[in-house]
Amino acid sequence: MIMEHKSRLKFCLIPLVVVVLIGEATTDNFNGQSTFAWASYYSDHMVLQREPNRAVVWGYGDVGANVTVSVYPTEKGKVYHSIVQIGPTGKGVWKVTLDAMPAGGPHTVEAVQTTAGKGQSLVLKDVLFGDVWLCSGQSNMAFTVKYASNDSAEIARAADYPHVRLFTADMVASDSPLYDLRAIMQPWAVASPESISGPPHSGLGMHWGYFSAVCWFFGRDLYDSIAVPIGLVVSAWGGTAIEAWSPPEVIKTCNFTTSGTERMDNVPKPVSNSLLFGEASWEADIIVGERQNNSALWNAMIHPFLNMTMKGVIWYQGEANAAFNETDFYGCMFTNMIRTWRSAFHLGSGGQTEPVFPFGFVQLSVSSNENFPELRWTQTNGHGSVPNPDMPRVFMAVAVDLPITGSTSVHPRDKQDVGSRLLLAARHVAYGEPVVFQGPLPTAVKVNSSAKTMDVLYNMTMGTLRLEVRNQDGFEICCSSKENSCKPHTSVWVPAKIIAHTENTVTVSTSMCAKNVTSWRYEWAPAPCPFKQCAVYCKETQLPAPPFKGKVKS
Q: What keywords would UniProt list here (predicted)?
């Protein structure tokens, strides 16, 4: 319980971004006032961003008061100064930017406010410096370790990762930007079987443990790769559309005018409640649209983190927009959301978060929804892969081949492969490692009309990387009565089975088309293949080729 105090000094450490009251004060410091208590949002065990970036520390206090911040033991004797000023909400706020700190710890961080010669202090312990990643999106990001494949063993393994720290924001919406979080689901915690699996969140009918499976497996694998402390901050809400997570300027740029209520009216009825994260609902092929106004989650669940210095973001979202039949504008929304998030975090952190920080996302997995193939395409803004000219320093995990066996559930349990594929791409895009991080990508297509075949050339490095074909299906061709056209009234899509392949080329049959082959596409279905059995993979990396489409020049 939070106790009432005469003093207004409050202390926040990004990325906690919540009010923490003074604790363990002495009567000497507080002129006879002897009783103080921490809020339930206690922020020991957190991770702050390491060098070369500089972490930002901020909080609340009495306007005009002096605040000093010290970090022990590494910077013993170093003192950072700030003056409490009137903040965006009218409360007194202060902020300091620490010097660049090497990875490691534990450290103690102390803040002292001095007013009229009297001091008040707060001490945070077991603070590490490392890489901070924000994990956001809808239900597949909120999906917890408790419901992932091999959950019991994965939960037990968490005890081996005390330098990975976890934080989960609660689900709150707002029609105006918030400077601070209104609620927290999981305060900062050391990774452990308890902190990644429970206790269940109360008040919303949820029956699931705290922590995001995709975020956890990504962060755990990242720690194994770079061996520095990792801070994982989850801010996700099931069934939510991208426009709820986007700043107002994105809505304006993409000329999106549909409201949250109108979106709900477009969803087929009946709609079940995906917030009940019990096993039955996870397995159900449903997507629930929340009645969130445009920018409502940006305002309440992202904007409060803008002071935070961080390494990057991973994102898993898009199912709701497919359900709302909003694939046409998703590319505009997604590319501009990434751009504005980057600008806002860079500005909010005083330039400490990189202006083009790495941004990773999961391409949609499977569904029975016919809009999924096009939504996957627009996630790359029509390029088929990332990074691309529209999406620099963006990376992607393909998940189309990870369905639950015999199911088209939008919530596959295999989040381990999602995390490891994201991490492999992050090693290249975010950390600059010379690793192969993508599956095979097509570079050219050639039709042989007399032989009734089509060759698809891939970007394999000859002698090093080779194609692996796991089944004959996956390719389709557009058969049209008109050259260079693939319109519904003159064309039809027909299968094109794989009949041969080399280390870098797949040959498919066009014998089912007696007219003009004008376009082609690959794995263009809501649920195109069984578990890890799509058609084309890289033999050396085991990474799948992403869904793709293109025109065939006559």
A: Hydrolase, Signal
CA distances from 381 to 138, 374, 376, 399, 410 (A): 20, 10, 9, 17, 22
Q: What is the pLDDT of residues 454-472, one digit of tens each?
A: 999 999 987 799 999 999 9
**CATH superfamily assigned to domain 10-124:** Immunoglobulins (2.60.40.10)
Q: What pLDDT, in 10s, does the model give residues 336-375?
A: 999 999 999 999 999 999 999 999 999 999 999 999 999 9
Percent of the chain with pLDDT over 70: 84
What phi and psi, each to the nearest 5 degrees, are found at residue 104? 140, -165
Q: What is the pTM of this model?
A: 0.89
For tokens 């803004």, the residue is 381
pLDDT at 42: 38
Q: Which fold has domain 129-429?
A: Rossmann fold (3.40.50)
Q: Domain extents for the chain?
A: 10-124, 129-429, 442-551
Rounded Cα–Cα distance for residues 95 and 309 (Å): 12
Listed in sequence order, the residues at least 6 apart from 112 whose beta carbon sits closer than 8 Å to its beta carbon are 67, 68, 69, 70, 119, 120, 121
| Higher-confidence position of 512 and 210 | 512
- d(CA 432, CA 356) in angstroms, rounded, equals 14
Contact 123/21 with Cβ under 8 angstroms?
A: no
Nearest to 64 by CA among 39, 84, 87: 84
